[in-house]
Amino acid sequence: MILEPSIDKLQSKINSKYTLVTLAARRARQIQDTKVHQIENPKAATFVGVALEEILEEKLSIEPGSEGLED
Q1: Domain residue spans in the chain?
Q2: Going by fewer Cβ within 10 Å, which terminus of the chain is more open, N or C?
Q3: How far apart, in whole angstroms, are the C-alpha atoms of residue 38 and residue 65?
Q4: How confident is the model at residue 71 (pLDDT cuts 50, 70, 90)?
Q5: Distance between CA 32 and CA 15 in Å, rounded?
Q6: Distances (CA, A) of 35 to 29, 30, 44
Q7: Cα(21)–Cα(48) distance, rounded to whole angstroms?
Q8: Is pLDDT of 39 > 90?
Q9: Mean pLDDT score of the chain, rounded to an integer?
């Protein structure tokens, strides 16, 4: 089973795997709560997948130096 988007493509947008996972998890919870996402016709069947697609399409990002992702 191959997962899309690939980790290599995602890491071209966000360098740190830890930051990528944390950002995707937080965004997935937001999507689950609000049922609102930033991309048209997501391919993913899960909230985490949709969040990862948003990151890949640069609809979701972090500011440099904010790797702590404070609440």
Answers
A1: 7-56
A2: N
A3: 24
A4: very low
A5: 25
A6: 10, 8, 14
A7: 9
A8: yes
A9: 86
Is the pLDDT assigned to residue 51 strictly greater than 90?
yes
When computed from its CA atoms, the radius of gyration of the chain, rounded to whole angstroms, is: 12
- CA–CA dist 19, 16 (Å, integer): 5
Distance CA 16, CA 68 (A): 11
DSSP symbols for 31-49: HHHH---SSSS---SSHHH
Backbone angles phi, psi at 62, to 5 degrees: -125, 160
Query: Which pLDDT belongs to residue 63?
Result: 75
Q: What's the rounded Cα separation, in Å, for the pair 45 and 64?
A: 30
Burial of 21 (0-12, 13-18, 19+ CB in 10 A): middle
Which amino acid appears at position 36 of this protein?
V
pLDDT at 67 over 70: no
